[in-house]
């Protein structure tokens, strides 16, 4: 069985498990507010009493947070476990929830995946712990990703407002101006490839996250969810803008057929054959560590716009910390979650390279004035911070986005390897997502 097929089946099982748990979760209110009716007044008592908290996360900056938390609260023992990245952890988490044992007290969950846990009521509503006071603490994109009406399913850990990373050395050599619109981007792609057939404006072999982020920026809102009632529509203006532009790049073979995060990708970023990236603001650390030889060559600019003169961005990536309903020490779990995502915990993570979801860190002079030697001394955080303010509102993911993303290459991905058009691929993705959702008990319209 291929890795892709395995991932798809595991994701499907995770969603089935979530829905199967819904009835049980709805039928019991014993843990709705934590053990014994937890609330803000119980947190201090729990910290004084102490105990053990198990955290499942892969984010490396949490190691320092654990050390700082245990130093501040010596009676609390925090065990940080890497149970796998992304889908692997989500599958393990759903299996633990279904088995009724082995679930962590805190789990890292990416924004796109949070819905599948929220719809199954398998994570705590943190508003009962006082989390509503953080409504203005976080930037709008991450906060919208973790909230649903009055419910708060997690606290934002970081964010990924998008920016345009470009190889200035390559651009200067070939007289390319930094594109401010996606039409100019296509022209730059043509000019670069004509000047040197080995150079591509960027790479793309089909990526669900990148596609939905650019549709988001273009004004598309393909997903709407109200409980188990869902609408999927990839026939709006945003999706049309994206497919019209990206189809030109595919038809003219202006995209490097290189998979992101592969050795070939890192090589392309280093030697200039991949000249730009439109990606989340968490990318600098990856360039510094993975493409060290190109230090000084790269710069950052605002994302090109779909309409000249606009200032609209979108999120690409980012994670939250959630407290599973099955957690044993919910008050301590919330205390750690709060510490890791706000105040000193958030600041220490930013200092270690995480991109902030908190307004205070995002707007601090120290953050904004940070010079990046990798980008020739550029104060790139100013561009990232503006992008965070310009993220388009009202974006939603499917409550089974993990599964939907797993079938992206079976549908939209065909446009990269066959005569299938991107618009046809999006339609096929929509149809497959609608069918699957209805099979799993959702009411899905199109």
From TrEMBL:
**In its keyword annotation, does this UniProt entry include Signal?**
yes
Q: Which family does it belong to?
A: Belongs to the bacterial solute-binding protein 1 family.
Q: Which residues form the signal peptide?
A: 1-25
The protein here is known as: Sugar ABC transporter substrate-binding protein
In which domain of life is the source organism classified? Bacteria
* Sorted UniProt keywords: Signal, Transport
Source organism per entry reads Streptomyces exfoliatus
């Amino acid at each position: 069985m291929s890795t892709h097929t395995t991932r798809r089946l595991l994701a499907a099982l995770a969603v089935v498990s979530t829905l199967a748990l819904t009835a049980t979760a709805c039928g019991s209110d014993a843990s709705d507010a934590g053990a014994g009716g937890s609330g803000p007044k119980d947190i201090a008592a729990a910290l004084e009493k102490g105990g053990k908290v198990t955290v499942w996360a892969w984010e490396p900056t949490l190691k320092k947070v654990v050390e700082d938390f245990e130093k501040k609260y010596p009676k609390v023992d925090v065990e940080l476990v890497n149970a796998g990245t992304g889908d692997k952890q989500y599958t393990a988490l759903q299996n633990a929830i279904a088995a009724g044992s082995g679930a962590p007290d805190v789990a890292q969950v990416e924004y796109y995946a949070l819905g599948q846990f929220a719809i199954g009521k398998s994570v705590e509503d943190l508003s009962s712990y006082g989390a509503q006071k953080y409504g203005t603490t976080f930037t709008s994109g991450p906060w919208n990703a973790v909230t649903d009406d009055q419910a708060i399913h997690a606290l934002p850990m970081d964010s990924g407002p998008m920016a345009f990373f470009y190889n200035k050395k390559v651009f200067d050599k070939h007289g390319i101006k930094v594109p401010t619109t996606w039409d100019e981007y296509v022209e730059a792609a043509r000019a670069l490839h004509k000047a040197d057939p080995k150079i591509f404006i960027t790479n793309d072999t089909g990526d669900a996250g990148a596609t939905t982020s650019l549709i988001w920026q273009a004004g598309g809102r393909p997903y709407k969810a109200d409980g188990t009632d869902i609408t999927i529509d990839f026939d709006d203006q945003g999706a049309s803008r994206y497919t019209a532009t990206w189809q030109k790049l595919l038809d003219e073979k202006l995209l490097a057929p290189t998979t992101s995060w592969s050795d070939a990708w890192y090589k392309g970023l280093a030697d200039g054959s991949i000249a730009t990236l439109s990606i989340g603001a968490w990318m600098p650390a990856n360039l510094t560590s993975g493409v060290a030889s190109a230090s000084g060559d790269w710069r950052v600019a605002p994302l090109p716009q779909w309409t000249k003169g606009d200032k609209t961005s979108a999120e690409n990536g980012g994670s939250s910390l959630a407290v599973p309903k099955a957690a044993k020490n919910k008050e301590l779990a919330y205390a750690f979650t709060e510490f890791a995502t706000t105040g000193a915990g958030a600041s220490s993570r930013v200092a270690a390279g995480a991109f902030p979801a908190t307004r205070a860190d995002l707007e601090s002079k120290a953050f904004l004035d940070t010079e990046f030697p990798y980008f020739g001394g550029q104060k790139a955080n100013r561009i990232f911070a503006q992008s965070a303010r310009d993220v388009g509102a009202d974006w939603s993911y499917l409550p089974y986005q993990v599964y939907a993303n797993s079938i992206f290459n079976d549908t939209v991905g065909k446009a990269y390897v066959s005569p299938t058009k991107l618009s046809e691929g999006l339609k096929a993705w929509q149809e497959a997502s609608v069918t699957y959702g209805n099979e799993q008990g959702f009411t899905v319209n199109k």
